[in-house]
Amino acid sequence: MNDCRLQDLAQGVVQRALAAGATDAECTIAEGNEFSANVRMREVESIKEAGSRGAGLRILIGRKTGSSYTSDFSPEGIALLLKSAIELAEVTTEDPHAGLPEPEELGSVAGDLRLYSPDVENLETPVRIETARRAEAAALDADPRIFNSEGASFDSNVGRHVFANSRGFAGQYRTSYCSVSVAPVARDGESMERDYWFTIARGFDALEPPEQVGRIAAQRALRRLNPVKVETQRVPVVFEPGAARTLLGNLFEAVHGTSIYRQESFLAGKLGDKVANENVTVVDDGTLPGLFGAQPFDDEGVPSRRTVVIDRGVLKSYLLNTYAARKLGMKTTGNASRGLAGNAGIGHGNFFVEAGVQSPESIVAGVANGFYVTELMGFGVNIVTGDYSRGAAGLWIRNGELAFAVSEVTIAGNLKDMLLGLEAVGADLEFRGAMAAPTLKIGEMTVGGK
Amino acid sequence: MLFSDSVFASRFNITRHDLEAWLAEALSQGGDYADLFFEYLLTSSISLDESIVKSAAQGVSMGVGVRVIVGERTGYAYSDDLSPEKIRKAARVAACIAAGPAKVDKFDLQEGLRRNLYPVLVAPTETAFAERVDLVKRADRAARAYDSRIFQVQVGYADNLRYVLVASSDGVLSYDRQPLARMSVSALARKDGGAPQAGRAGGGGRVELDYFLTDHPPESFATEAAREAVVMLDAVEAPAGETTVVLGPGWPGILLHEAVGHGLEADFNRKGFSAFSGRIGQKVASELCTVVDDGAIASRRGSLNVDDEGHPTQRNVLIENGVLRGYLQDRLSSSVMKTESTGSGRRESYAHIPMPRMTNTFMLAGESDPADIIRSVPKGIYCVNFGGGQVDITNGNFVFSASESYLIEGGKLTRPIRNATLIGNGPEALKYVSMVGNDMRLDEGVGICGKEGQSVPVGVGIPTIRIDRMTVGGTA
């Protein structure tokens, strides 16, 4: 379906909802085409290709809301969509804070955010397969100890997002991405380890060379071989960027407006307080062109923006949608995010720790005895209390050098102390997704082992 | 549940002849096998927060996935439009994985096993919304009434009704109607303006709404969540390092799901990169351990009449008296490994390629009295509730996170301890199981398992067990 027709459909659904008795309405339509090719041990393992679409409707009758979604765009499907949402508004409770953004808050970021690249759609299937094959071959050929592989994949997606509401907003944008990932398996005697590496970009031309992806993946698997389970001890912990990104994920949960108004975050009520070491600045920016967290408007039709969350250690802002903002007596930060069903939640744009000045090598060189974490496992983070306890794997640092592989250990502490204990922030910030962090070092954590 | 009575035949006018024609289209380039997976899914959800029903949503999605297998290669395409042209187009796209002349031109579709593990007349999804909203409100009231220190309560309720139809070039024709419902409650407690603590509970299954009105009322989940939050107010730091761990019955069975279940899924073993690859017949656990995956238990969240490839689910013994017995097989892996499907081929939706998955995974009861197990431990921890877990199937390391646990000192439970992750190695961890209780219990019905981006509902279960050595990720 071309651009106008989907936007017209969304606006039409909103108008019909109003005619059916809604006092406000918003309609989201998402459409996408996905492609995935997997290659394993140099052979094609699977190819998947398809397109899908769906529409979501949320209506208000006064301060009561109802929502519905459908993948059926036939007249009967749309009629049911409207009927379902109206019917559900009858069973929900009056909520004084429910409602759409004010008309003056609505809008879109000016200029091209470079979210769509036509080369992704136009790529021939054999090129896609060949790209994955080259990445895996580079991994398999990197070292004789790479004896097996979970495979390499080339994935791409092209989508269109449409949003309209009864306050006069209607907008849409297209997105694209493609990625290559490879997961080789290394063996040495009894020890078998797997790791992966990937490249992802809005356009095919912007991908890193597949051979480079394969070689890095192989090195990552090889360096994990013959791991040691270390003794339980308290030591400095250095997070490589991929692991550091997970800490940022925990921070996102802690500054999430819903967690704040419900007082289920250890950062609730801490605006203006020093919550992290002063070398730490964390930003959410949905306007950085070409990056994965960019979008012209959020899922309530509010323009994306740059929000400084932590400024040199001081908590400056939470991330909010309209509802959480009203609960807290604040203004939305343009972070509404929703699927097709239900109320808008809260998401992030490009959420990152600003780069520091130290090279990752010099951070490691400054540690006499410590743990360099490359992988974290499990869900052992409690945002209510800040208690942090996760499975970890990586390399042991001895006298400033990465000495040997470590696995089957835990790292534990409390996020409050961990943020304040962020002694070093690396210069190696790189966006491989909407969240990004450079190498980070925490002064001391408990490593649980033997 | 006959195809002729299905929503696909009645509403979309799909006939056996259509199914055969589309399978022929899928094999028109010479694939070895093809299947069609139709899905029609109705969902509802309600969420309550701050005693306000803030959201109620319902929706419909539908689609068909077409799969073609040639050797170990899979071609897959799907459509969310069930018109004959779109289904034919999907079949042609999937067919491209093969490159040759068509091999098969005649299919003899046979409807298989007639059983119903979830004889639900009116699915929760088909009941009046107001009834379900009332359940959520009851849970809120009960959690708040439990203790004056409870200051926040969130209740979620979700159900769905999934109609699936599988037709394959092997002649399988299976239609199933799969109801599912789940309630979850989370509560926050605070003492004297101090730091809050959370508690969570929930349950459900492939049941009628009556399930929540009789034996498993919303109050039972609500008071359980509130109790956990209040208990945790007194929690002390968890120990760090190796110690003796006692797991309570029920949901702690997530240990089995992570430690052995995933590593025994046949796709990883067919490809040879599971820590359990090539270990059938070897001792991987103490002889007290027998672990089973059973998708054929009545009304359970992880149960299915037929898997998502149309095969009946069954009881599969994974570990028998400590010895590794078998893998969980789907169509593709079993044909490559020259064995049979174990009814373990599952997929999240029509948009996903099936793979071997768990259903309800549990350990059989032993002989010990649970109280004796705790009494036997001079120093260790007792874990009764967990959050999620994860495993690296290649090196076998797994984690699972304890959300309610206690110190054991001198054979007695003393203080609750703060959340801690437990870590172990799959083929090793169960060798340290030294006592198995007689109190085997399945979980309440809240599990969701993720693998390669696909989520499916599952169940777990375990009796009280003692593990002599496991690493606990505390700070003390």
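The longest strand of chain B covers residues 52-70.
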